Sequence to fold (288 residues):
Amino acid sequence: MNLLKHFFGVVLVSAGLIGQTKAQQGDYYTGEIGIGIGAAHYFGDLNTTTQLNRPKPAGTIFFRKNWGQYIATRVGLSFAQIGYADRYNVKNEVQLKRNLSFNSNLWEVSVQGDFNFFRFVPHEPGFNFTPYITLGVGLIGFDPYTVYNNEKVYFRQLTIGTEGQNSPLYPERKMYSNNALSIPFGGGFKYSIGGGRLNLTLEVLHRYTSTDYLDDVSTTYVDPAAFPKPPGGISMSQILSDRSGEIGTPIGIPGRQRGSGSRQKDQFVTAMFMISFNLVSYKCPSAD
Fold:
């Protein structure tokens, strides 16, 4: 939290300085500090057809270092809510019967390289707009949960995971990490306003990740004997492992595929509107 407060303090101070400075022909734009807000969507074992019917909020803060008028490096901190449920898969009978669901808050720290298609000089008419592409690497943190009897249940806090993680019957299945790598790539359009003081950007970023457990679903159903047996009842792990019985005949036969398999990793996408403040130096820029 202290880091975020410091970052926003820098944004406000920079905005004030920029507001007092009118860009001149010889100004050199060294970088940008910005924020963005938009929507996120998940793709994975619960959304195999890449439908965009359940967007959730997303936001970002970032610093971009310009290395000229075409190339820049960006460091960002982003937040997204993701989630999906089998009940939305109305055209897939198997997924409807499976009846699984999840939600998660997701954080990402990333470093990206941006490439402008056009020469970008914010204060020069005719050069204050450019489409661009971006590619980078990030680290994400996530913690999937579901809602059962109107209460949140976090999957990673279960003694035995829903796919037998940490069970002696499945020693090869360990509880998945709540951190993973991401590969953000995409592009957008950037337009400068206010005499070169501000930039408005619309950007779409797709992320491949190194995990298949953003949604807590990956491999197969397991033997019910893998789950602990509380006195006179059934464990939460077993209940959440196979929720098909809540709407019909249970389908969770041990060994039957529960997800699409660990070879297909989960993904998510964000679409954001961003505003950034240009940082100006008065040294002469090097020739491009």
Observations:
- The radius of gyration is 23 Å.
- Helices lie at 2-19, 93-98, 236-241.
- Residues 244 and 250 are 5 Å apart (CA to CA).
